[in-house]
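Exercise 7. Predict the joint structure of the components listed below.
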Amino acid sequence: MNITTEQMRFWSPAVRELEPYVPGEQPKIQNLLKLNTNENPYPPSPKVVEAVQKVLENSADALRLYPDPDASELKQAIAKQQQVPVEQVFVGNGSDEVLAHIFKAFFVQDLPLLYPDITYSFYPVYSQFFGVNTQVIPLNDNFEIVVDDYKQPNGGIIITNPNAPTSIDMGLAAIEEVLQANPNSVVVIDEAYVDFGAESAVSLVEKYENLVVCQTTSKSRSLAGLRVGFAIAQPHLIAALEAVKNSFNSYPMDRFAIAAAVASFEDQEYFEAQNQKVIASRETLVAQLAELGFKVLPSSANFIFASLPSKDAGELAAELRERGIIVRYFNKPRINQFLRITIGTDEQNQRLVDTLKNEILA
Amino acid sequence: MNITTEQMRFWSPAVRELEPYVPGEQPKIQNLLKLNTNENPYPPSPKVVEAVQKVLENSADALRLYPDPDASELKQAIAKQQQVPVEQVFVGNGSDEVLAHIFKAFFVQDLPLLYPDITYSFYPVYSQFFGVNTQVIPLNDNFEIVVDDYKQPNGGIIITNPNAPTSIDMGLAAIEEVLQANPNSVVVIDEAYVDFGAESAVSLVEKYENLVVCQTTSKSRSLAGLRVGFAIAQPHLIAALEAVKNSFNSYPMDRFAIAAAVASFEDQEYFEAQNQKVIASRETLVAQLAELGFKVLPSSANFIFASLPSKDAGELAAELRERGIIVRYFNKPRINQFLRITIGTDEQNQRLVDTLKNEILA
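Solution:
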């Protein structure tokens, strides 16, 4: 909408300059194959349904009461699953909210926050929102993080691992090197996609007082519709996140979110089986796309980042869309010849491959 | 917990100074009469249960997909119920989140934000969090807002109406006077309790380009456990809130929250009947407490603010608590001889009155 200069006087001056994040679209078209926002193709654990049914007992009388502002039950379930003490767990309304609190809690410093040029595009948005100084570090030509670049003065570091949209995993040894080189900065490892084949840095939390690991239930737990994210860190860092959270919103987690996420964390078997299915489907899809001439970066995520030398990626995305398949295309420097494709079921992936093979590239 | 100076180096400097909000306690004791956080004594509309059941269909497959980041369906339901265009609706994860976004969007100005000395105690917390300059305006000796005090240079005004914890309603004529006196400031009317007998300022939104009205589903809709709040304002103000929201968290409303709140807004009959019950119970309780010697401020809310000249309020709160009844006591200047008591069912209120009459004041 158009806002006049006169109307703009009501806005806080800094808000007039904001460039908000634009999420992947959520179209409401029938029979669409939606491979654009890295959702899981399988439903959540059946225990989730039971847990929500329980909240609805007695005419949903539980809903008239505020939820536990601390979401203790959820923190305990996460602590158990992650094998950490409950004092090392923070929860929020999706990992996006957890990340927002992380930026405010740790990164508003004189020295700049470091992050890669190609990574989660919400980081520059949070930085602007909270007034965080930043220094963007280019990935190398293979789209990898170069550890030595993170050995310069800084007020914090945030790395997505596996990185997005590249899907590349940097490995725990490299993460430890970053942690050791920066004993006075908070290093955040954003592990939204870690459950699809990468090794989690949660195992390093006990050893490093400067480490925060952030995860989400949106991908590997099929709970994108629920909005539950969490962070694991030593208690002196969790305390900063709690101070920020309790200065913003006392009760961010509703009763359904708490109950459903607890049930998900308690069903380890379903979780592992489901992730293995996604990983197996990914390997099949990568092989099929390679046959069609795609170059696919090595993926440890539930998506792949692929380019086709013979065809413009923007055009390819448009042609897929005309055929009812949506993938994510970023019209940005360095990556505007790639498509980010979410791993679907084998049947869905086959539809993508067939459409490419028989219709677009035929 | 104790955080050492050395550990504190990891925190953003401003976060080290935060004094977070402390919500009313949510104890997990059996047979407790909980009259401390202004929850509704009745369950939500039965339609809420049906709506949530629908999200659970097909093994809750809907949960694997992100919700609509714009929560359009919910905005439409609110617009219809409030009789405003959908472009005038903003939604958030509880009215606490909506208020947080309001502070960031409008109140970070050179001139100070004005609000009463006795009001929602989250306002100073938001102000510190976002770096908002403030000037606190004392209520008069009857705990009323004096309109003339809000005719001085300012960078915004926020008024809770009915005010909390006083329960006193200032009336729309007085609100219009504040709006007219401040054509260059955003005036926010926080109407968390408006449905229990006060007149809403939503009817003024079309007329005043500087008005934002904030409401919640936590009280009058029995959905405290769900976390849904909203704001009504002209589109040039809604746009600022959207810019802030989309710089913080794209998907704050989960699928259950959207579906359940929509169902609640569509059941106007249940909503009105339930509020009338609470109002009737309030009038009975006020009369009974007056008989016991309490002075009760005139209430337009689902709580009352009462003092007993013959007894210290802190002691009274403690004695009620020993008998399984929790009310809210604020150990703060001017109001430390008052108790804030949530209106329960008639049976619950009778238990309070009987306990006072037969045990504490006998």
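Discussion. The first strand of chain B starts at residue 33 and ends at 35.
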